[in-house]
Amino acid sequence: MKELESRYLERLSQLYPTIAKASTEIINLQAILNLPKGTEHFLTDIHGEHEAFSHVLKNGSGSVRRKIDDVFGNTMSSRDKQSLATLIYYPKEKMERIKKEEENMEDWYKITLYRLIEVCKRAASKYTRSKVRKALPPDFAYVIEELITEKAEITDKESYYNSIVNTIIRIGRAEPLIVALSELIQRLTVDHLHIVGDIYDRGPGPHIIMEKLIRYHSVDIQWGNHDVLWMGAAAGQRGCIANVIRICARYGNLDILEDGYGINLLPLANFAMNTYRDDPCTCFKLRGEQQCSPDETNLNIKMHKAISVIQFKVEGQIIRNNPEFQMESRNLLHKIQFETGTVEVEGKEYPMLDTHFPTVDPGDPYALSPEEEEIMDRLEKAFLHCEKLQRHMRFLLNKGGLYKVYNNNLLYHGCVPLTADGELMSVRIYGRFYKGRGLYEELESYVRKGFYALDEKEKERGRDMMWYIWLGEGSPLFGKDKMATFERYFLEDKETHKEKKNPYYSMLENETVVNRILAEFGLPPEGTHIINGHVPVKSKNGENPVKCGGKVMVIDGGFSKAYQKETGIAGYTLIYNSYGLILAAHEPFESTEAAIEKESDIHSDSIVVKRVLERKLVGDTDVGRELKEQIRDLEVLLAAYRSGRIAERL
User: Fold this and answer.
1) Taking all residues of the chain, what is their mean pLDDT, rounded to a whole number?
2) How many CA atoms lie within 13 A of 422 on its CB side?
3) Where are the alpha helices (DSSP H) in 102-205?
4) pLDDT, tens digit, for every residue of 63-122?
5) 63, containing H or E segment
6) Which of 231, 352, 497, 646 is the most buried if burial means most Cβ atoms within 10 Å?
7) Among candidates 445, 439, 442, which has minimal Cα distance to 425?
8) Which segments within 494-626 are labelled E, that is strand?
9) How far, in Å, are 263, 276, 311, 356, 447 from residue 273 at the CA level?
10) % of residues, the chain, pLDDT over 90
């Protein structure tokens, strides 16, 4: 052990070769520990709504507006504060409008620059100068550093400070500086972003969201079931591919695949038109607001049916090949009585709303027709070889996982599967049983195997497991007894559409159960929280997103427009700053254009979930614990230098 310690200290001495350098680093790290903790921003269930996501990202769920209020208090009107906030969110677009209305732009530039500088100072105040310097835009790094670190009220510097601002305006650089300051304020207002699942499906722009996340300065992602579905599709799992295309078709978003990812759907379109030419496909009408022509809508409906039938066949094959998934009851094609137009579900006969299945062979209903086989073969290759999709999925793999423990908060998307009496539920995974944290970690390992395993059998298992995570009863990301896709399409009886939730969702007010979950993931019962997405919170029915006295926060309020009638709002987000936890409820987002023109902000209401008695410092965080370890190591190195055990590298 002593030999290992000596080697470690030798390596450390290469980084800090003298007593002076080691001492300086200890002083720097100790000072950082006493800064306020950075602001964390939690978003979940974005579901492709890229405009609303972008706006919430820009405003930090109200954090930017709070910074403006802190700086200007009652010295600025509410309208001026909102105008300044809108400028910070959309500097280029807002300035274009202001130039058409403002008579004296020079005065406007001067006033605006001074205001932005003050907000920027406040946003930068909780960081070291080194960290702020790294965030500065290269074109204005020197200028901004001078402006936000110098104090204009000091007489000796006042003329210098004013000269910088006046020169910037005179040489025509005010507008790019305003853009740079606005983006820097956004960057400094939120230190770290958590995405608690479901970036994909329903909305039109998940690929746009992914590009924003890739560029974001600090982010982690807890996968949702829709994300894992897309990951499975990118890995070439046919059940996942069929589901991805079906959901895109259902919401009229096939252009995500065609334009966003360049995946050719023409073979599927031709097949759908030929096979279902005279079929009205009434069970496959599209959801949401459609902007396409009647002919395009008709084609999408037929593609919707074509891929759905393929999906039921492919899933039947997956279930047959994986008997331990215990999902045989979800295979329903072979239970259709074509003569009577009925199907048997859970031992009961139901009339079907649609019995036109020209590609289904009653003798072998799960076999793909030659045309369907060719389509799936081509789609599988298209998903596997789409560079942009693979890049997005690799980002999810690198930045994501099924759960995360961060600053005493436990983050996951769906649920921790429980039994009816509140105990951790055991789930069989390829011959062994797992529960709680072990279940999460085993499933995550199989997701990674689906991409990286060298053993083909393990890789295939990983791919199939991604499909299971999407809709399996034992999946913590799904948390229901079944996904009733077949029933919702073909059966009128609403009872058959019901998907029974895991007992977890009815036990979120049970402190014993919540403490058991926290302990399972290594967290104490006090001062810790579960932050959860997946299930929309029905605010209009009085449902509260804060459960168990503040220990659990379910922050999916409905980013997705498809759910907003059900929930009554447009999503919850969460802010965790040095003063505590703030839950933000959001109104529906009209459009980016309206946000700029009307200066409307979708942040609507804030609830202080928890306010700390003493302001949280960096030293109270996970980063702080790491810094304390570094300080201890450096103090050992310092002692080794002073005792002569290690020589300084002068």
Assistant:
1) 92
2) 12
3) 105-124, 129-135, 141-149, 155-170, 174-189
4) 899 999 999 998 999 899 999 999 999 999 999 999 988 889 999 999 999 999 999 999
5) helix 63-72
6) 231
7) 439
8) 529-532, 546-547, 552-554, 572-577, 580-586, 603-611
9) 19, 6, 18, 14, 36
10) 80
Note every long-range contact of 448-453, with CB atoms under 8 Å and residues 24 or more positions apart, other chains counting: 448/397, 450/231, 450/232, 450/235, 450/237, 451/231, 451/235, 451/393, 451/397
Locate 169 and state its tokens.
């305006």
480-497 average pLDDT score: 96
Distance of CA 522 to the CA centre of its chain: 24
Residues 189/63, Cβ–Cβ less than 8 Å:
yes
Residue 299, sorted as left (phi over 0), alpha (psi -120 to 50) or beta, turns out to be alpha
Backbone dihedral region for residue 489 (phi beyond 0: left; psi -120 to 50: alpha; all else: beta): alpha
Chain CA centroid to CA 148, Å: 32
Residue 429 has pLDDT above 60, yes or no: yes
**How far is Cα 127 from Cα 107, in angstroms, rounded to an integer?**
31
The structure tokens listed for 191 are: 């230190």
Q: What is the pLDDT of residue 290?
A: 66
What letter does residue 429 receive in the DSSP assignment? E
Rounded CA gap, 395 and 223, in Å? 11
- The span from the CA of 516 to the CA of 519, in Å, is 5
Distance CA 470, CA 239 (A): 10
Number of CB atoms found within 10 A of residue 173's CB: 16
Query: 346 by DSSP, 3-state: which?
Result: coil
Asked if 224 and 249 count as a contact pair (C-beta separation under 8 A), the reply is no
Question: How large is the angle between the packed helices 63-72 and 78-89, nearest 10 degrees?
Answer: 130
Q: For position 453, what pLDDT does the model report? A: 96
What pLDDT, on a 0 to 100 scale, did the predictor assign at position 333? 97
Amino acid making up residue 495: E
Indicate if the pLDDT at residue 561 is higher than 80. Answer: no
pLDDT of residue 159: 82
Residues 6+ apart with CB under 8 A from 322: 464, 468
Please determine, for residue 154, whether its predicted confidence score (pLDDT) is greater than 90: no
pLDDT at 504: 96
Rounded CA-CA distance 113/209 in Å is: 30
- State residue 464's pLDDT score: 98
In the three-class reduction of DSSP (H, G, I as helix; E, B as strand; rest coil), residue 450 is classed as helix
Kindly report the number of other CB atoms within 10 A of residue 265's CB atom.
21
**Terminal-to-terminal C-alpha distance of the chain:** 28
Tokens of 484: 């009733």
**pLDDT at residue 188, rounded to an integer:** 95
Find, among 374, 359, 256, 343, the residue nearest to 306 by Cα.
359
| Residue count of the chain | 650
pLDDT (tens digit per residue) in 335-364: 999 999 999 999 999 999 999 999 999 999
Q: Please state whether beta strands 342-345 and 336-337 pair in parallel, antiparallel, or not at all (unpaired).
A: antiparallel
